[in-house]
């Protein structure tokens, strides 16, 4: 605690000095921008240090100068700004139903939730099953619970010319309580761990808890079902047939010319 208080005092004392130095600099910059930058940086550093010391942070301060929007994003304060002065997040609803969207239902889902601002949560570093379990094992559980994915890597008009970041290996789209959209996405392939969870941005402040509620059946079940997917490894430009045959997990390279856009693979008895 003493170290955190000393760090806080040093950061506060550095702000006026930085302001004086900024005044001696170029006069072409927007008035006050240097001062606001130094204040925002000091607050960010103090917040990180206090978090390390496990001390509850002060409520975030929203900067009202439009010119610092890009700085706010760069310093990681965008979430604080959207929280509107530290207002408490609304309570999470109880999860009553989860309905998986079928492949042919993608258009209706996209149209219905076209205006949704999404928030995303990857692996959090915490020791939860949804963060640490191998992705291929989570995929087998999803198959047992919801059937085939809503989207796979080959569900496209063309398989070539896409940026590496656009290769989503598979995705399950869900509708919770008949009205709340959610997505479970694999971007790293079967050799990775965990999945990406997406939900409306209004749940951003409690996204971990909302993920736990929505994906509770995935964490609790021991069921696994047979499946096969195509998987594209962007780093080596290699395609695989990967899946679970009921006895073991497998992943075997396949030629690019054996894959047709829009055609998913079928599971053979002996892959």
Write structural notes for this entry.
By secondary structure, this protein is an alpha+beta fold. It folds into two domains: 2-82, no CATH class; 98-258, no CATH class. It has helices at residues 2-23, 33-52, 69-74, 78-82, 106-112, 129-132, 135-146, 207-214, 216-220; strands at residues 98-100, 118-121, 151-152, 170-176, 180-186, 196-200, 227-233, 238-244, 249-254.
Q: Got a strand count?
A: 9
Shape: globular
Number of helices: 9
Count structural domains. Answer: 2
Distance between the termini: 58 Å
Question: How would you classify the quaternary structure?
Answer: single chain
The level of helicity is 25-40%
SSE class: alpha+beta
Give me the strand/helix succession: HHHHEHEHHEEEEHHEEE
Q: In this structure, how is the largest beta sheet organized?
A: 6 strands, antiparallel
Determine the mean pLDDT: 78
Strand proportion, as a percent range, falls in 15-25%
Gyration radius, in Å: 24 Å
Extract low-pLDDT stretches: 12-38, 65-85
